[in-house]
């Protein structure tokens, strides 16, 4: 059974997720840790629980979701995966990171690229990948059907949606991704978003003002 640990990192209050199961193998999703205290928080949890990170997987490549990728990748000597379309977003981060007060951004090397339908495996567990662009052109989400949850990044929030005014964003594309991909999941699926608290598909169908 997959355990989900969330951390809130960096000034954007970004949710980083650590998923692990009974084998103690783990995947790290969207490591946004930036300062020493945040890295320590992540590393201490991994050490205390005797976890073995095997992979970094990202929903997308906006700055708040990639700040810690290079350091975490080096710490555990594990591969990093991203959708090919978001590679240019990742490469752009170093050009504007200092504008947000993040000096010396270390751009990570991408080891493999995602495509829709891919399966990410760790331990006895797996996540299937959905391509859900709109907030970012190469945005993906990770779904586990057995436990009915999705790690959704910045697509769908509790009574809100991801921004579409950033480079590569598109409102109509985002709404289509939510309706045709996320809303086809069962109402009981929990959505662990890139910011704020979790929600459910059923709650958002009934209460999200952007999707009435």
TrEMBL record:
<dbReference type="GO" id="GO:0016787">
    <property type="term" value="F:hydrolase activity"/>
</dbReference>
<feature type="domain" description="Metallo-beta-lactamase">
    <location>
        <begin position="13"/>
        <end position="195"/>
    </location>
</feature>
<keyword id="KW-0479">Metal-binding</keyword>
<dbReference type="GO" id="GO:0046872">
    <property type="term" value="F:metal ion binding"/>
</dbReference>
<keyword id="KW-0378">Hydrolase</keyword>
<dbReference type="InterPro" id="IPR001279">
    <property type="entry name" value="Metallo-B-lactamas"/>
</dbReference>
<dbReference type="InterPro" id="IPR051453">
    <property type="entry name" value="MBL_Glyoxalase_II"/>
</dbReference>
<protein>
    <submittedName>
        <fullName>Glyoxylase, beta-lactamase superfamily II</fullName>
    </submittedName>
</protein>
<dbReference type="Pfam" id="PF00753">
    <property type="entry name" value="Lactamase_B"/>
</dbReference>
<dbReference type="InterPro" id="IPR036866">
    <property type="entry name" value="RibonucZ/Hydroxyglut_hydro"/>
</dbReference>
<keyword id="KW-0862">Zinc</keyword>
